[in-house]
Amino acid sequence: MNIIDRNFYRLLRIGAFGTTETLEPLSVWKWNRLYQLSEMHDVAPIVYRGIEQSQNQFFVQMPEELLEKWRKATYHDEDNDNDMLIADHLTNPVLNHHLQNILDSEESGIETRTVLLQLLGIARFILNAGIPVKRLVELGITLRQSGKRIDYTMLKKWIGTLKMNEMVQFSSIMLVKLLHFTPEELPFMNPTDEGVMEKYIREMFKQKNSHAEEWYFSQGKNIFVHTSNSSAMLWHVRRSVKFLKYYPAETTTNFFTSFAHSLSHIEE
User: Fold this and answer.
1) Do residues 210 and 129 make contact, with C-beta atoms less than 8 angstroms apart?
2) Which pTM value belongs to this model?
3) Could you say which DSSP state residue 128 is in?
4) Is the CB of residue 219 less than 8 Å from the CB of residue 194?
5) Which residues of 14-26 are buried (b: 16+ CB within 10 A; e: fewer)?
6) Is pLDDT at 133 greater than 70 in this prediction?
7) I need a surface site. Which of 23, 37, 86, 162 has the fewest CB within 10 A?
8) Could you give the CA distance from residue 177 to residue 6 in angstroms, rounded to a whole number?
9) Burial class (CB in 10 A: 0-12, 13-18, 19+), 58
10) What is the DSSP string of 54-71?
């Protein structure tokens, strides 16, 4: 990671989990880039809490107008998630049937089902948008606050039923490498050596985030249907191919569902 990314994740950990970490010096331009990064990932309020808790550090110096932007983002935080990223359903009909049975069952408490839905939300975000920073932080907060009330035996059973073992492993590695969780805090994580975890993270950071709306189709002045972003379809195809090995049962149906969703945006 570059220095902006390193400070970004430090501030996330400080703001979300109250850790004590030393920030590296940033120029005004880099502080602005870090602010843009926090806005892009919808975590500006969390990053701002990290800044507030680190304000006595020598290198936490930025223009007052930039701090004011962060304050406004904190007080006007809104959830802008797209409906195609909702985590309480899957596009694969067989897996979705299993999921609905799980959600309707009373085999385990609400905390266990909440973690399952958060893991599903991360998986769907990876397939459709990019690096799931906000969702990782939310999952981390749930695990830290409710970890003792989670039935990990049942959770692992559900993960297997929904065929998402590899994607959950991917999520677990991101929690360890980006948010500094320990494997002991993640009973659903399989033992993995450091080299493999680094490979997973490099693979994720090769992917660029993209707004889901760029995948939608629209009609221009001619009769040909085109995407609002000429590279959006190719991006989605590449992403589906890349993550097919992590969640094969869902990735293919997710791609065609996204395609159909795109067509629904064509004007009559």
Assistant:
1) yes
2) 0.79
3) H
4) no
5) bbbbeeebebeeb
6) yes
7) 86
8) 11
9) exposed
10) TTTSTT----HHHHHHHH
Contact 187, 169 (CB under 8 A): no
Residue 220 has pLDDT above 50, yes or no: no
Distance in angstroms (rounded) separating the CA atoms of residues 51 and 53? 5
What does the longest C-alpha to C-alpha distance in the chain come to?
60
Rounded-to-5 percentages of helix, strand, coil across the chain: 65, 0, 35
CA–CA distance, 122 with 243 (Å, rounded to integer): 13
Q: Output the DSSP codes for 239-257.
A: HHHHHTTTSHHHHHHHHHH
Could you tell me how many helices (H) and strands (E) the chain has, helices first? 12, 2
182 — pLDDT class (breaks 50, 70, 90)? very high
Cα separation of 128 and 189, whole Å?
23
Q: Are 262 and 226 in contact (CB under 8 A)?
A: no
Q: Which residues, in sequence order, are CB contacts of 39 under 8 Å at separation 6+?
A: 73
How far from 75 is each of 86, 136, 187, 230, CA to CA, in Å? Answer: 24, 22, 35, 35
Terminal C-alpha separation, the chain: 46
The count of C-alpha atoms lying within 13 angstroms of the C-alpha of 47, restricted to the half-sphere facing its C-beta, is 31
Query: Under a CB-based contact definition with an 8 Å cutoff, are residues 122 and 246 in contact?
Result: no
Query: Quick one: angle between helices 133-146 and 110-128, nearest 10?
Result: 170
- H/E stretch holding 232: helix 232-243
Q: Cα(240)–Cα(238) distance, rounded to whole angstroms?
A: 5
Give residue for tokens 């033992």.
191
